[in-house]
UniProtKB/TrEMBL annotation:
InterPro entries: DhaL_dom (IPR004007), DhaL_dom_sf (IPR036117), Dihydroxyacetone_Kinase (IPR050861). It comes from Castellaniella defragrans. The keyword Transcription regulation does not apply. The keyword Transmembrane helix does not apply. The lineage of its organism: Bacteria, Pseudomonadati, Pseudomonadota, Betaproteobacteria, Burkholderiales. This is Dihydroxyacetone kinase-like protein.
């Protein structure tokens, strides 16, 4: 049986992260406390172990839940927030007919959950600044009747643009807010990771 989309996606995300780990770590060292890459590495390792433990017949919703649990049990601000985000993706996957409908609903609900928990608005220089444009791109694609691969390409592009824009923002909350203007020109690592996530999704889907 071929690997599910969620498994291929998370495998690809982990592989991309390994290539970008140094860069993401440096971003959090420059404008935060420097542990982001370590936190994300640990979350991805736990997520991979959870996915590995699932039976081959597991559904995508079950796979997303296993991934979410890996993140939820990891420290730092990013672990629990990304865990909640993935949990909404899992819930949506279980209750929608097509992957794109599930993805659009899940990313929107997950981003709302992250905002509820963390209090971040657009422009506060957090992962939310990559999540919101990705959610919009997915909803637009769903409305346009786009194919899943194209929708994920658009989401990856929008998340990447959102992440790059955080370099021009001053943090209102989180650790980067402690350094204020000193973060100018430095991309938010959480937002950069979200862009990587959607890029991996686009690849997993095209495969
Ligand atoms: P910590 O700041 O606890 O060391 P991490 O280094 O694991 O956490 O994660 C930092 C990332 O978390 C930031 O780059 C940012 O994207 C995200 N973040 C921090 N605070 C918030 C918040 N309140 N809401 C949403 N995202 C946040
Ligand atoms: Mg940190
Ligand atoms: Mg920390």
């Amino acid at each position: 049986m071929p690997d599910s989309l969620a498994r291929r996606w998370m495998d690809g995300f982990a592989a991309d992260f390994a290539l970008e780990k140094e860069r993401l770590g440096a971003l959090d060292r420059a404008a935060g406390d420097g542990d982001f890459a370590v936190n994300l590495a640990q979350a991805l390792k736990r997520a991979a172990a959870g996915l590995q433990a699932l039976p081959e017949t597991a559904t995508d919703a079950q796979a997303w839940t296993a991934a979410a649990n890996g993140f939820l049990h990891t420290g730092g601000t990013s672990g629990p927030l990304l865990g909640m985000w993935l949990r909404e993706l899992a819930k949506a996957w279980a209750s929608h007919d097509t992957p794109l409908a599930a993805l659009a609903a899940g990313v929107a609900a997950g981003t709302a959950a992250v905002q509820r928990l963390g209090g971040a608005q657009a422009g506060d220089r957090t992962m939310v600044d990559a999540m919101l444009p990705a959610a919009r791109a997915l909803e637009d694609s769903l409305r346009d009747g786009a194919a899943l691969a194209q929708a994920l390409e658009r989401a990856a592009g929008a998340a990447g643009e959102g992440a790059r824009a955080t370099a021009r923002m001053t943090a209102a909350l989180g650790r980067a807010s402690y350094v204020g203007e000193a973060a100018a020109g430095i991309e938010d690592p959480g937002a950069a990771a979200i862009a990587l996530f959607f890029r991996a999704g686009a690849r997993a889907c095209a495969a």
